[in-house]
Specification:
The chain has about 325 residues and is mainly α. It has helices spanning about 5-25, 35-40, 45-60, 65-95, 100-110, 125-140, 145-165, 180-195, 200-220, 230-245, 255-270, 275-280, 285-310.
């Protein structure tokens, strides 16, 4: 199956949205115009878009693969860039006098420091924990009948998420119930594109509605005044529609989209802590250019590493660049 290049573009837009949120709203070094902050505050929804994209792409990547092959591909895809970005982030924190103790830093290199009761090297890394848990669940489901099992598990996942909406379940964190609707939207888009069962449209619609409900309720944590509920819902619906379109759209020249997609993960990893250090010492435009250049450099380095690690894998194991 061919790569869907516009999904790479969506990845970059999601990463850029989070970058804008932290830079212009979450931690502005100097006062920003009110209109700028009013727009930038919606950038946190880039994480929601990431989870939707992940639901689609991980399902696409998992179909027809063994547990070992899939798990190895996930490690190769995530860890090299994370290792480089983590070392750069720790260096930036050391320069700023806020470096983590060595034990906490080493715990972060596992990508799951929270399980080891250690603080995150960068607060934005919390979403990686969600991604890794999602990958673990997909890995467990792999094998004969994977798609059918995944469909039933998604239905049960949504049902638990709905119950959690009314009564907080003790397993909510372990089962990612607050983000389950977003992953399920992406999975349902895969189903509608590749399995073409009418029930999948209902699964996707239910997930989208529940995801909007969760986002609208949690928006109050994003500051005062909170983001507008209608805008939050509209952004999530548009993100889902864009993913559905991008999953089948073609591009005459996809090289630039692939590059943007490659930069998106390093950009997410380096923009926050390193960005804060740079913004205290450089004009905003210069700091942004430095972060983009750094993200590009990390991508190029990890791409070389990933190509070496991918040697011997089949072409099918590299679907969608994952």
């Amino acid at each position: 199956m061919n790569r869907a290049p516009w999904i790479d573009g969506l990845r970059f837009l999601a990463a850029a949205a989070v970058f804008v949120f932290h830079t212009l709203y979450g931690r502005p070094v100097v006062p920003r115009p009110e209109i700028t902050q009013a727009v930038a505050k919606y950038g946190y929804l880039g994480v929601v878009a990431f989870f939707m994209i992940s639901g689609y792409v991980i399902t696409l990547s998992a179909v027809g693969r063994t547990r070992l092959d899939f798990a190895r591909a996930r490690v190769v895809r995530l860890w090299p860039a994370f290792l480089i970005a983590a070392c750069l982030t720790e260096a930036a924190r050391a320069y700023d006098g806020t470096a983590l103790p060595s034990t906490a830093f080493l715990a972060n290199l596992t990508m799951v420091p929270h399980l080891l009761r250690m603080p995150y090297l960068d607060p934005v890394y919390w979403s990686l924990m969600y991604e890794i848990v999602f990958y673990a669940y997909v890995t467990l489901l792999l094998g004969a009948g994977f798609v059918d099992r995944l469909r039933w598990v998604c239905a049960a996942w949504l049902a638990l998420s709905l119950v959690n909406w009314f009564t907080l379940l003790p397993v909510a964190a372990q089962l990612l119930l607050d983000c389950a609707p977003y992953f399920t939207v992406g999975i349902a888009i895969y189903f509608t594109r590749h399995e073409r069962r009418s029930v999948d449209w209902f699964l996707g619609l239910a997930a989208l509605l529940l995801g909007v409900a969760y986002a609208v309720r949690s928006r109050t944590a994003m500051g005062t005044p909170p983001p507008n509920a209608i805008v939050v819902g509209a952004v999530i619906v548009l993100a889902a529609a864009a993913l559905y379109w991008a999953s089948a759209a073609t591009a005459r020249s996809s090289g630039w989209l692939i590059a943007l997609g490659g930069i998106s993960y390093p950009l997410y990893l380096v923009h926050n802590e390193i960005g804060a250090v740079l913004e205290h010492r450089l004009p905003l435009a210069a700091a942004v250019l430095c972060i983009l250049a750094l993200a590009t450099a990390v991508w190029r380095i990890e791409l070389m590493l990933r190509r070496r690690l991918h040697r011997g894998q089949t072409a099918s194991s590299r679907v969608a660049g994952l």
